[in-house]
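Could you help me review a protein record that somebody else here produced? My question to you is simply how this chain folds and whether the C-alpha cells agree. Thanks in advance; the entry in question is below:
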Amino acid sequence: MTIGEVKEILEANILIGGERMDEPVETACGSDLMSDVLAFVKDKTVLITGLINPHVVRTSEMLDITCIVFSRGKLPSVEILEEAEDCGITVMSTKMTTYTACGELYIHGLPGTKKRAGAKEE
C-alpha cells in the first residue's frame, strides 16, 4: 500500500509531505503510548494516534515510521509539523477514531505488526 492509498482510505487531510504519496507502507500501528510503539513497530509503518506532542515525531524518527495520522480530527502545532517535515515524515489528520482508522486499513489489506507481547522474536 502507498501513503496516498492510506490518505484515501482514511479520508485524511495531508498536513505535511504531500509529495510522498507514492511511498510504500508495510504495516500500521494504532497507539497513544509511545513505549508500545517502540516495542512493536518496524519501519515503513503508518502510526495512527490521538496523542499530539513532540514525542510522537521523535519516536517516529527513531523507528523510520513513514507516516503519522492524527485521529479524531486532531491537528498538531506548527512546531510538530516543522519537526516532522525536517524528518521527512508525512503527517495527516483523519476524523476517524484510532480504532476505526486501524480497522479500515486492516480490511483494505494493510497488516499490523507480527510481534506479540511476550512472544519470542521470529
Q: What stands out?
A: Residues 3-107 form a domain with the Udp-n-acetylmuramoylalanyl-d-glutamate--2,6- Diaminopimelate Ligase; Chain: A, domain 1 fold (CATH 3.40.1390.20). The mean pLDDT is 91.
